[in-house]
Structure formats: C-alpha cells, structure tokens
Amino acid sequence: MATLSFSVNGEVRALKLDTRTTLLDALREHLHLTGTKKGCDHGQCGACTVIVGGQRINSCLTLAVMHEGESVTTIEGLGTPEHMHPMQAAFVRHDGFQCGYCTPGQICSAVAVLDEIKAGIPSHVTGDLNAAPHLTNTELRERMSGNICRCGAYSNIAEAITEVAGRPA
Q: What tens digit of pLDDT does each residue of 10-29 get?
C-alpha cells in the first residue's frame, strides 16, 4: 500500500492505494469519477484518456503512484452540464457522439491536441518539423487516431474540434 496525493480537477486528493492500482481505477473506483471509461484496458481504444500535467495519457496504462503531486484533469474537470467547456459544447452542437462511451476520452484528447498544436509539438505526419504545425485534416486524424469510436462519429468529432480550433469545418 502507498499513500499518495495529486490534484484531480483542481482539488488535492489523498489516497491509500495498492501500488498496482492504475490511475484509471483510482479515478473510477476510489474517487468515484466515472466519466473516464474503461474500454479495452490495454491502451488501444482511448476511452480512458485524461490530461496529466497538460499531456493526454491513457489512464489504464499508468499506475496512480507514478503521478504523486501531479495535476490530473478528467472530463468532470473540463466542464459541467451548466457550464460546458467549449469542446464539450462543440461535441453537442456537431453530434460528435452516438452511444457516448468514448466521448469523455475523445473530448479530453481533443482539448490536449489543440494545446499540442499551439505548443508547436509535431506529430508523425507533420511535414516540416521546423515549422509550427497547423490543424489540417491529416494532422487532426493522426493526432486523434488513438481514440476509437465504434459508432463511427469521426466526421462529427472532427467538425467539433475544428470549430473550437477556430477554423471552418
């Protein structure tokens, strides 16, 4: 067992956990933040995507103890039904979900993708590594490729993200 604390959605949380507990299970089972979903539990679907220290990660692939003192943002920390994050509102406007299971991970990933581009972080399809990346359809699809939607709402998800990015879909 280990005692650890980290900031979750702006609130410092202390937990006593088995050292083998994933961040996903700490969030869902111990902190009761069930917006983050357990999909494949192997890091292949992206349903468990959260933002840690400003970077998106698959919370099923990392142990909670590895994030001592860090800042974790889940879908619950981005916005509420009354005060949605712009990305959440865009997903609603563009019907960027069907069953909704992947949506929390998609939204957390999308928020982080726009921050990555703003920070000038290249992707695998960035043509010129010395130039600032731009949100093209190819860049967007590459950066979001770790988030799977079994319902196939990809075009609506892309429209929502490009709206928030400030360019026409």
A: 999 999 999 999 999 999 99
Model confidence pLDDT, tens digit, residues 60-70: 999 999 999 99
- DSSP state letters, the chain: -EEEEEEETTEEEEEEE-TT-BHHHIIIIIS--TTS--SSSSSSS-TTEEEETTEEEEGGGSBGGGGTT-EEE-HHHH--SSS--HHHHHHHHTT--SS-SSHHHHHHHHHHHHHHHHTT---TT-S-TTSPP---HHHHHHHTTTS--TT--HHHHHHHHHHHHTS--
pTM exceeds 0.85: yes
